[in-house]
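Case study 2.
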Amino acid sequence: MNDEVNEKLELQKQIQEIENIAKQYLNKDALIRYGNLKTAFPEKAIKVATFIVQLVNNNQITEKIDDEKFKFLLRQLEDKKEFRIVK
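Prediction:
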């Protein structure tokens, strides 16, 4: 039971770190949209924050993301389909 609580706390800490990094690259309007997204769809918000951090780490984002670019990133995530190989 205690290990489970520790794992959840660690996961929350990691999510918070990812969000903090991603938020540094969002302008005011994109930050508002992110907050709305997080309220309505927390899992999707975490996915887009992770995606932004990956882009930053790959030097694909070097400046603030405006609302239009944020919406574009959201659409990119939604367009990605998972492919499963069925044997």
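The chain is about 75% helix and 0% strand.
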